[in-house]
Amino acid sequence: MSTTTASLGTDRVRWLRPTLTVLVAAAVAVGAPFYFAPFQVFQLTMVLLYAVALSGLNLLTGFGGQISLGHGAFFAAGAYTAAVMLDRYDTGHLATLPAAAAGCFLLGLGFGVPALRLRGLYLALVTLSFAVFLPPLLKRLEPVTGGSMGLTVDKLQPPAWSGLAEDQWMYFVVLAVTAVALLLARNLLRSRAGRALLAVRDNESAAEVMGVRLSLHKTLAFAWSAMFAGVAGCLYTWVIGFVSPDSFSFVLSITLLAGLVVGGLGSLYGPLLGAAFVMYVPSVSQDVSEAAPGVVFGLLIITVMFVAPTGLAGLPGRVLGAVARRPPRTTAARDRTPEAESAPGAEPEYQALSGPSETHAPADPAVVDAEPVGAPPRTEKE
Amino acid sequence: MTDLLQQVVEGLGSGAVYASLALALVLIHRFTGIVNFAQGELAMLSTYVAWQLVASGMPYWLALPATLAVSFVGGMLLERIVIRPVQGAPELTVVIVTVGLFIFVNALAGLIWSFTVKDFPQPFPDGGLDLSGVRMDWSTLGIIGVVAVVMGLLYLLFQHTSIGLVMRAVACNPASARLSGIRVGRVLMFGWGLAATVGAVSGVLVAPVLFLEPNMMGGVLIYAFAAATLGGFDSPVGAVVGGLFVGVAETLTGAYVDVIGADLKVGVPLVIILAVLLVRPQGLFGRAAVERA
Amino acid sequence: MRKTTALRAAAAATAALLTATACGSQRGQDAQDTAAGGACKGQQTTGITDKTIKLGGIYPLSGPASAYGTISKGVAAYFSHVNDKGGIDGRKVEFVVRDDGYQPPKAVEEARRLVEQEKVFAVFQTLGTPSTAAVWDYLNKQKVPQPFVATGASAWGTGDQHPWTIGWQPNYVAEARVYAKYLKDARPKAEVAVLYQNDDFGKDLLGGFKKAVAGSGVKVVAEESYEVTDPSVSAQMASLARSKADVLLDVTTPKFGSQALAADAKNTKWNPLHIVNNVASSAAVLEPVGFKNVQGVVSATYFKDPADPQWAADPEMKAYKDALHEYAPDADPDNQFNAYGWAVASSLHQALDAMKCPTREGLRDAVRSLKDVKVGMLLPGVTMSTGHGDAFPLETMRLMRFKGERWQLFGKPVDTRKEFGPTAK
Amino acid sequence: MSEPATDGTEAATGAEQDFLKVSDLHAGYGQARVLQGLDFSVARGEVCAILGPNGAGKTTTLRVLSGMVRGRGSVTLNGTELLGRSPEQAARLGVAHVPEGRGTFNDLTVEENLRIGAHLRTGPRRRGRAERAAVVADLERIYDYFPKLRRRSRQAAGSLSGGEQQMLAVGRALMLRPSLLLLDEPSLGLAPLVTRELFEIVRAVNEEERTTVVVVEQNAQLALDIAHRAHVLEAGRLVLSGPAARIREDGQVAEVYLGVSVLSRKAGGAP
Predict the structure, then answer these.
(1) What is the CATH number of domain C172-301?
(2) Domains in chain A and their CATH numbers?
(3) Which of B185, B226, B274 has its CB closest to that of A363?
(4) Per mean pLDDT, which range of B59-63, B157-161, B245-249, D255-259 is the poorest?
(5) What is the distance, to the nearest Å, from the Cα of residue A135 to the centroid of all Cα atoms in its chain?
(6) What is the SS3 assignment for B52?
(7) What is the distance in angstroms between the Cα of B264 and the nearest Cα belonging to chain A?
(8) Closest residue on chain C to A26 (Cα)
(9) What is the CATH number of the domain that holds B67?
(10) What are chain A's partners, defined as 3 or more CB pairs within 8 angstroms?
């Protein structure tokens, strides 16, 4: 690997390097469950599972520019679909995955329609109240959902031929689903629909003029995104083997969004980093302070956002950029010249999310609080 | 009929609680364009400050202004230390910073004051008004009254003072505000201080009713969001009207619509918000973005 | 651009793995469970030696249920106190506390960590029904004892699928039976309004109560639920007041208990007999409401309330307060959850002492064959008993009424087993 | 209409000549370098047009002058260094910038917009009756320049037409009593007639108040009509400087440096 890194530039190497890195990553991913202790394999499984949910949210929020604070609800819907199927109808695990995916896709489609009329903040809050509403609803539907006691179902069991332990088998199944999901997310973005989505995010009216069918693509974005969350929820049921309404409180939705932003919005691998963050950092926090892990966890979130405002995925780029470029630096919003506007399909990593307050000028503290200048100047009149 | 009116009064009581926090949310949103998830927790923290002062022997009416002052300064410092460094980052980054702040403040309060319920002094007299069988506590009336006064003061501040004008200008177009020589950073600090103060008023008002503990404001926050959304996220009047409306609506549906019942009444704000937004996306009192190309 | 993405993806994956490596051992080192010899041959001795015993507990130290996290402080204080006096049967207790934030997936992760990495002897206490339900399959499959879970759901003692798991506190059904018996005796024609938390705790207690009063003159005429995420229960209280019931059964957790008591006190037109369930009966809940407002409130209990002055001279209470002062100076000794932790830890002490073999199997069997075991922090007359077909250690409670500034016990200890037969699901 | 008065600038002394002096200015956004060593001066009381094709760095130049964008090199206004100052500090030094896209406060009324313009003179700490009276007088003065604004003084700025908003933006900048007025693409999106009206007012302001004006325009013809002097930028460098009249008349120069892209957009027309 070091030799390839050393000789950059030729076309052959340009192709060799990604191929190699993918191979190395795959080897690491496949080898991990044979190296780590079972509970660490379990942790990795959870990271992968959350990454699926986050990449779904990323489709909507990072690429579509719509903020959802209700993805925990879709996650729960997927988890409950799987649990109810396993518990009531004994369908077997495999059948639950397409059901959960399809169910959440439809649910998302249903949500996508009103979401068309809601922008930014309002959409976020409507989805948040949906997330708040879901747990009591699940409790109410006791005959199906088992009410507040929840449902305990069988976990995924390794088939005899595999010779794997339970945690290893679950890891591989989740790894496979995650790989497919991430690939799907990537291809969705490169498809016509995905490029339309990016165009919509960057400039809604321009995209509309270009003939992009705005409403269709936005609704579909919601549906796809909900589907990913549902698939993650289904995996959750397979891995944990227990669902209860209070496991899916609105805190989960907020955690998902926080994970995505911390990992890196609009980046293809940000969800992986974000998932690792929400999985590992709480444990680290309580190692630091047993009395109040929340104090540490809260501080860590803030710190990451300080250090990497565009998320952990953007950090290497920022660091490299800071080294490569010295001032002139801008304190203003991006240039409005057409050339500066990103072409659809371009690498979206450093794009800021377009929101209602895009116009805010970034106030550089160093500049803002420089010494005050005396009395206001007057124009001399002759 | 008396029962119905009694439920309406109960609803107004809850609504006033939501409205008080919604005011602070609206303030921050109006001036910074962000939703501050930590607003409720900051209010809770302020309330603990007041509690600590009272517990250490300070008379209530002295502790109150002291708490408001501490909250104002605290809010300004918060803007300077926590929010300023991410100003200009993507909007969601700032929102997530407030989520981090939420977790931090909640845990901090638990660490310092534990999760045991604290007794917070009630500024309003016990008992209440009896209007032909319908009972309204003085505390409910008091909260509504204070919230209305705060709302009025905010209105005067925005519409009839030069600092209010400057704040609105910053909210509307910070870049142009800077070009006009306005120190946007200081105005934002002032805005956060103000919101923290309004939040402190909210916390001190509701603590005797909800009982003080670190999670006191967590539940209120969702309803306050609903109230602010309903009223329009940039309108103080809307926040108050929205809060009262949400309170009454959820109480009545919880009490009288059996299909919904007390357990599903949290769905009421969801339905209301959705309905309002589909018809009038800027909320009841919100201003539609007036712009002509 | 594509190549950097792939590269970063790989870097991300590697980083995640490295994080995991940094805090862990390799696979393969696990499968070396030790086994005992002699009469206890073949039994598991993981986490226990002649000198030490390692226990792990999972509590919500963060998140919405962090109020209960302080139980771990009471437990830890007890073990430190015992260790200073030579340990349990010569073994020093090492107590590892992990935080699950009241989230089941986190509880699973932490349970696995305790078993696989910390290699604890037993998972002593998981808190809350969801977290307990999420981990008990795993622990039973691993044959790790899960004694004295900190939840009163009746599920823990009713099935035979999970021999390694057992509850401790009187289950919610048993508690409901105590109130039912009291009402049947004292107010045979009572109309009861119920305020309950909409989760397993509230539902279990309400269900148990309804079943226990079935066929008697006591009727449930109104019920209102609330969610833990609700800000207040005032609206529910107003609805219940409309029923004009003459008894209010208040099945709440502390903050909502205070709210309900205050709402009841404020409403001068409705003055039912207020029965507050044990979870919300601490003096710490009543005090903010004002003692003058809670006179005559009835509850039931099984352990000594540290805020109650009548136990001030009690030697066990003194030991508790001294130990807490010494080992957990930041914990409030008057908080009943700390005392709960102390009580449950000393109960485990008794069970460990009763083990025939110093093995996991030994503990499993010991907690299932308790015979009238007395524990200092429990009320006089309340003892632990389990046996074949009875996996509920505590099923006796005493009624109490609030008078002046303290609870006053009244009546004899109510043994719900005798009154109603074994708890069924 | 009338020819710009060039005699005033010819007679100016050195300091007056270099009222605004830009030397070796570099600036950019991220890794994109927009300005690469720019030098020019503007004399006091002069109207100076900055011309050039799209992306030449005109807007960036103005942004550096008003502190919105950081730059390297030197920019002095009446001998005071401007670089390294924030927009609010630049405003305090008398720089009023009307940004591209107008930058009015749409939720505020017309009169409130103008009062914000005078913020530095009244501010949160009021500076006495005299100053307030002066502000009121200035309001009248602005309304005299822009009678349309007077009629709409109680209306929200967002409800104005594009031309009125542009006028409001200029009016707000003038309330600062600036020594240097920066106008960025004032004609953008305006009808030709409205644009002409606006430019006439700018000329009047310049003549009556002796305010130095730097105007960036794509519509070179219009800008050259009111400017005394013009600088032509291309790819972040100065390629041509001189009295406006000469540049306008020198058809060949215009063709070479301003190209079709500039002159063909005369009066908002299509190429």
Answers:
(1) 3.40.50.2300
(2) 1-31 (no CATH), 39-318 (1.10.3470)
(3) B185
(4) D255-259
(5) 22
(6) helix
(7) 6
(8) C10
(9) 1.10.3470
(10) B, C, D
State how far residue B247 is from chain A, nearest Cα, in angstroms: 15
Q: Which of the four pLDDT bands, split at 50, 70 and 90, describes residue B292?
A: very low
Chain A residues near any Cβ of chain D (below 8 Å): 321, 324-325, 327-332, 334-340, 361, 364, 367-368, 370, 372-374, 376-382
3-class secondary structure, C57: strand
Q: Which of C62, C253, C330 to mutate to test the interface with A (most CBs of A within 10 A)?
A: C62
Minimal C-alpha gap between B123 and chain C (Å): 15
Structural domains in chain B (count) = 1
| Smallest Cα distance from A330 to chain D, Å | 5
For C396, the enclosing helix (H) or strand (E) is strand C396-403
Whether residues B266 and C239 touch (CB distance < 8 A) is answered with: no
**pLDDT tens digits, one per residue of D115-158:** 888 887 765 455 567 777 888 888 998 898 888 889 988 988 88
Predicted ipTM of the assembly: 0.84
pLDDT score for A373? 29
Fold topology of C44-170+303-394: Rossmann fold (3.40.50)
Domain boundaries, chain C: 44-170+303-394, 172-301
Query: Is C172-301 in the same CATH topology as C44-170+303-394?
Result: yes
State yes or no: chains A and D have 3 or more CB pairs below 8 A: yes
pLDDT digits (tens, 9 = 90+) for D76-91: 988 888 888 888 889 8
Query: For chain C, which chains pass the contact test of at least 3 CB pairs under 8 Å?
Result: A, B
* CA–CA distance, C125 with B37 (Å, rounded to integer): 33
* Span B220-245, pLDDT tens digits: 988 898 888 888 887 888 899 999 99
Q: Which amino acid is at A310?
A: T
Helices (H) and strands (E) in chain B, counts: 12, 2
Q: What is the pLDDT of residue C221?
A: 94
> ∠ at Cα A253 (C150, A42), nearest 5°?
60
Rounded average pLDDT over A213-233: 88
Measured CA distances, C346 to C306, C362, C372 (Å): 16, 18, 15
Count Cβ atoms below 10 Å from residue A146 Cβ, excluding itself.
22
* Six token digits for residue C279: 């979870």
Q: What are phi and psi of A371, to 5 degrees?
A: -60, 140
End-to-end Cα spacing for chain A: 74
Q: Where are the beta strands (DSSP E) in D63-216?
A: 71-77, 80-81, 95-98, 180-184, 212-216
* In a domain? residue B63: yes
Which pLDDT does position B65 carry in this prediction?
95
Interface test with C, best of B104, B211, B264 (most C CBs within 10 A): B211
Shortest CA distance to D157 belongs to which of D185, D116, D201?
D116
* Residues of chain B numbered 156-175 and touching chain D (CB < 8 Å): 162-163, 165-166, 168-169, 171-173, 175
**B282 to chain A: closest CA residue:** A122
Taking only the tens place, the pLDDT of each residue in B77-120 is 999 999 988 887 887 888 889 999 999 999 999 889 888 888 89
Is omega for the bond preceding A158 within 30 degrees of 0, making it cis?
no
Could you read off the pLDDT of A77-106 as tens digits, one per residue? 999 999 999 988 888 888 899 999 999 999
Q: Which two tokens stand for residue A300?
A: 């860590």
Q: How confident is the model at residue D255 (pLDDT cuts 50, 70, 90)?
A: low
Give the whole-angstrom CA distance, residue B152 versus residue A156: 60
Chain D residues closer than 8 Å to A376 by CB: 92, 94, 120-121, 176-177
Delineate the domains of chain D, giving CATH numbers in brackets.
Answer: 7-101+160-268 (3.40.50.300)
**In the predicted structure, residue A108 carries a pLDDT above the cut 80:** yes
Strand partners, C57: C97
Query: What does R_g of chain D's alpha carbons equal in angstroms?
Result: 18
Task: Say yes or no to pLDDT of A112 above 70.
Answer: yes
